[in-house]
Design brief:
The protein is mainly β. The protein has one domain. It is built from no helices and 10 strands. A 6-stranded mixed β-sheet has the order 2-5-6-1-10-9, with no helix packed on it. A 4-stranded antiparallel β-sheet has the order 4-3-7-8, with no helix packed on it. This is Lipoprotein.
Length: 125
């Protein structure tokens, strides 16, 4: 089953929040892609959602948006951020026990994040 990272489609989708904890200095809310050790997490990079070795969904990463890495005010426009991407996965895919691969990198678990109403999330390591 194929899907696209950010493109709208005619099928129902669910969003998987991909967090790239690169701590790159940028302004929050600007477009981003993975930096430093996470340069492989960039727009158009191929990804797969796997369960027990089976590919449940695949696509390419969309452009991300920078979010503050810390909840404190650091007093400047440029500050440590994480890059967050939203992956559109078909709503029919059960994300319980799934993992995310980006090219040859991973797998990382996709798990509910209680800070975001249990939205599915993968955090690169």
């Amino acid at each position: 089953m194929a899907c696209s990272g950010g493109a709208a489609s005619t099928q129902d989708t669910q969003a998987v929040r991909l967090v790239v904890p690169d701590a790159n200095i940028r302004e929050p809310s600007v477009p981003c892609s993975g930096a430093r050790a996470f340069r492989y997490a960039h727009p158009e990079a191929a990804y797969e959602v796997l369960a027990d070795g089976d590919v449940l969904a695949a696509g390419s990463l969309p452009e991300g948006r920078a979010e503050k890495a810390f909840s404190i005010d650091l007093g400047s426009d440029g500050q440590p951020t994480v890059c967050v991407m939203s992956l559109d996965v078909p709503a029919s895919v059960d994300l319980s026990g799934t993992e995310l691969m980006i090219g040859e990198h991973g797998p990382v678990p996709i798990e509910p994040n209680p800070a975001f109403d249990d939205a599915p999330e993968a955090v690169l390591r």
